[in-house]
Amino acid sequence: MQNNDTVLFVSPGPDLNNPASGEGTRLRNLSLELSECGWQVFTLVPEKTDDTTPDWVTKQYRYRQWSLPHLTDLNPFFLMTLKRVLSKEDIDVIHLSTGVCTAKLLTLIDSDTTVVYAAQNVEADHAQDFVDPDLPIYKRLLGPQLIPLIEWATVRCSDGITTVSDKDKKRFTDRYGLSNHKMKTIPTGTTVVSRSKLEDPSDIRDHLNINSNRVAVFHADYAHPPNLEAARLIDKQIAPVMTEQNIDLSFILVGNDPPNVSSPNVHTTGFVENILSVLNVADVAVVPILHGGGTKTKIYDYISLALPIVATKKAVEGIDLTDGVHACITKYSDEGII
Q1: DSSP alpha helices (H): ranges in 44-97?
Q2: What is the pLDDT of residues 63-114, one digit of tens each?
Q3: How far is the CA of 71 from the CAs of 105, 143, 338, in angstroms?
Q4: What beta strand segments (E) does the chain contain?
Q5: How far apart are the first and last CA of the chain?
């Protein structure tokens, strides 16, 4: 790589300084790694995002998020801002998960920039796999029809596609007839975390009012329906059994927009900045995810702390973990997880 290589990361919302989602964590780590490899990193983020530019970013631009992220290609403010960025900066690669068609159109007009679609999962499959009953009826009806069309246009417009797993790469090939040379699997990955550098677990316990000897953790952005579903399973089906069997175990649900809970041994924290220190309090991670696509960044977080994991097969999909070796992996059932 040359030191004058430049990449523009377009974020549909995740804050790269303090990401609250798996997508944000992946985006943060990838942009940071490229910066350390000598790339000049630029970012384009919605106005509502924290306006603090990450230390490794050369310059951060902002656009008005007029529409839902899936409809970024129809956002005139995104188009105008991206056009301004390309006219001011010599960008070699645009890396984005939304707005791919708009980006490609602009590069065809006055640039030879490469447009890379960063696929977090196969959206068409995800739209069919899970329809949130809490969504308005028009979204539940239109989503499974509209999202596959948007994804089809996106993969056709992009110069290259990155996927989070070989499973997703194969699915893109099968569904859209894409050639392998257009796609590259980039696993999210993780690094070993030194527990001695984290906050004292007893201080975290006191702050969270945790009195149990044993703690199980699940962390997520609960605005994402599969995460919300998993949290409700913990609260309604898994945690009550612990109480009934007099097992001294508390569950902590960490992350944005947690659900209301009814089990006395389930606690919510909301968003926390010191996520690894909070996870370090736990004795086990419980991940009863039933739906969703891509790979789950939370699994990599647990691995980084060598935290024992009890998970569904869906939760570890696309990650090379072996049941009974790296984690306890089961098809979902109350009995299986417990």
Answers
A1: 76-88
A2: 988 767 778 888 999 999 999 999 999 999 999 999 999 999 999 987 789 9
A3: 15, 12, 41
A4: 6-10, 40-46, 59-63, 93-96, 114-118, 160-163, 183-185, 214-219, 249-254, 266-270, 284-287, 309-312, 328-330
A5: 49
